[in-house]
């Protein structure tokens, strides 16, 4: 019998102006254990623990298992019967990349069980294909803050064919830029939050986001407050999504008054992410929580760290 255990970090995508192209891994984890079964009677058994365990599918539709199957299909092998244990640490459908942990977890787990036939870069391409955008799965797999873009990689001249591949850039993150997450107790599905976005934008909006993303990259690298305060604005997704998040304006203002550089919708929401220097982190946490409390919305607010390791083998016994 062979067993592997892994941990995959939560992620915050977009960071304001970097819609669908930038994200960072956070110090909050889902843990997964895969045990290859010898019996042919049970093809799949899934056990889930954690506060939201009942909300996770335990049949073949489970996203982690779907990614596991996708891996075997890719390497053209029959998937073995497997028991999967899931310890949930990342809240579901809150804009913290829970689906990315499942996709990355399923692919990495299957790769380890089969003796690692695929390289990390191949797992990454598969994960992006499954999720549909790179900004959660890439940092979940690699750790750190990552910017992704597609490049068209041309095959040798005579074939004149091309295929889409992703280029990834590591974005340095200054030690004194602290991510604070305010996680409300209601869900917002990414699918629903993408439906409210327009399909076209003006040239002015495109220029606005390009400039602000530049400030974000330099602000994250240097920790400069004047750049970070400008950086976190966006015209691509947040103006359309904020009405899906009750209390957004009040929480936003309270965090800024408490000294945050800026506040953005984490991923597709509803979690709000503030970036703040370490001395003000506690004050910003309290301010965000108390505003949601006044609106009678329960929330969990905490200062996290950026995770620089990404998905990792733990081999901790479940
Ligand atoms: N540990 C898990 N195991 C299996 N499926 C999961 C797990 N975590 C999340 N999922 C699936 O992913 C869905 C949530 O995905 P969704 O994209 O809506 O939100 P998110 O990934 O948490 O947020 P965002 O993409 O905005 O960061 C869950 O409803 C569930 O179907
Ligand atoms: N970039 C994605 C992240 C959430 O999966 C979005 O905002 O829809």
TrEMBL record:
<comment type="similarity">
    <text>Belongs to the GHMP kinase family. Homoserine kinase subfamily.</text>
</comment>
<dbReference type="InterPro" id="IPR013750">
    <property type="entry name" value="GHMP_kinase_C_dom"/>
</dbReference>
<keyword id="KW-0791">Threonine biosynthesis</keyword>
<comment type="pathway">
    <text>Amino-acid biosynthesis; L-threonine biosynthesis; L-threonine from L-aspartate: step 4/5.</text>
</comment>
<keyword id="KW-0808">Transferase</keyword>
<dbReference type="InterPro" id="IPR000870">
    <property type="entry name" value="Homoserine_kinase"/>
</dbReference>
<keyword id="KW-0963">Cytoplasm</keyword>
<dbReference type="InterPro" id="IPR006203">
    <property type="entry name" value="GHMP_knse_ATP-bd_CS"/>
</dbReference>
<dbReference type="InterPro" id="IPR006204">
    <property type="entry name" value="GHMP_kinase_N_dom"/>
</dbReference>
<keyword id="KW-0418">Kinase</keyword>
<dbReference type="GO" id="GO:0004413">
    <property type="term" value="F:homoserine kinase activity"/>
</dbReference>
<comment type="function">
    <text>Catalyzes the ATP-dependent phosphorylation of L-homoserine to L-homoserine phosphate.</text>
</comment>
<protein>
    <recommendedName>
        <fullName>Homoserine kinase</fullName>
        <ecNumber>2.7.1.39</ecNumber>
    </recommendedName>
</protein>
<dbReference type="Pfam" id="PF00288">
    <property type="entry name" value="GHMP_kinases_N"/>
</dbReference>
<feature type="domain" description="GHMP kinase N-terminal">
    <location>
        <begin position="62"/>
        <end position="144"/>
    </location>
</feature>
<dbReference type="Pfam" id="PF08544">
    <property type="entry name" value="GHMP_kinases_C"/>
</dbReference>
<dbReference type="InterPro" id="IPR020568">
    <property type="entry name" value="Ribosomal_Su5_D2-typ_SF"/>
</dbReference>
<keyword id="KW-0067">ATP-binding</keyword>
<dbReference type="InterPro" id="IPR036554">
    <property type="entry name" value="GHMP_kinase_C_sf"/>
</dbReference>
<keyword id="KW-0547">Nucleotide-binding</keyword>
<keyword id="KW-0028">Amino-acid biosynthesis</keyword>
<feature type="binding site">
    <location>
        <begin position="91"/>
        <end position="101"/>
    </location>
    <ligand>
        <name>ATP</name>
    </ligand>
</feature>
<dbReference type="InterPro" id="IPR014721">
    <property type="entry name" value="Ribsml_uS5_D2-typ_fold_subgr"/>
</dbReference>
<feature type="domain" description="GHMP kinase C-terminal">
    <location>
        <begin position="217"/>
        <end position="292"/>
    </location>
</feature>
């Amino acid at each position: 019998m062979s067993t592997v255990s892994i941990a995959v970090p939560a992620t915050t995508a977009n960071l304001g102006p970097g819609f669908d192209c930038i994200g960072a891994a956070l110090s909050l984890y889902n843990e997964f254990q895969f045990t290859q079964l010898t019996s042919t009677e049970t093809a799949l058994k899934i056990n889930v623990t954690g506060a939201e365990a009942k909300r996770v599918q335990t049949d073949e539709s489970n996203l982690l298992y779907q990614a596991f199957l996708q891996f075997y299909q890719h390497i053209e092998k029959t998937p073995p019967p497997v028991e999967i244990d899931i310890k949930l640490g990342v809240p579901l459908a809150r804009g913290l990349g829970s689906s990315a942990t499942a996709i990355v977890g399923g692919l990495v787990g299957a790769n380890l069980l089969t003796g690692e036939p695929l390289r990390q870069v191949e797992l990454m391409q598969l994960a992006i294909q499954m999720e549909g955008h790179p900004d959660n799965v890439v940092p979940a797999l690699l750790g750190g803050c990552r910017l992704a873009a597609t490049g068209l990689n041309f095959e040798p001249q005579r074939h004149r064919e091309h295929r889409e591949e992703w280029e990834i850039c590591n974005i340095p993150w200054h030690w004194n830029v602290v991510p604070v997450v305010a996680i409300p107790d209601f869900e917002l599905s990414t699918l629903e939050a993408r439906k409210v976005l327009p399909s076209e934008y003006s040239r002015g909006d495109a220029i606005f986001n390009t400039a602000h993303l530049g400030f974000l990259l330099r602000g994250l690298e240097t920790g400069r407050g004047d750049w970070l305060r400008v950086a976190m604005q966006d015209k691509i997704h947040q103006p359309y999504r904020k009405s899906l998040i009750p209390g957004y304006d009040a929480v936003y203002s309270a965090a800024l008054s408490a000294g945050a550089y800026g506040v953005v919708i984490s991923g597709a929401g509803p979690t709000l992410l503030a970036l703040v220097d370490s001395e003000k982190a506690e004050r910003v946490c309290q301010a965000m929580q108390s505003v949601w409390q006044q609106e009678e919305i329960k929330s969990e607010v905490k200062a996290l760290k950026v995770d620089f390791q990404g998905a990792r083998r733990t081999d901790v016994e479940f």
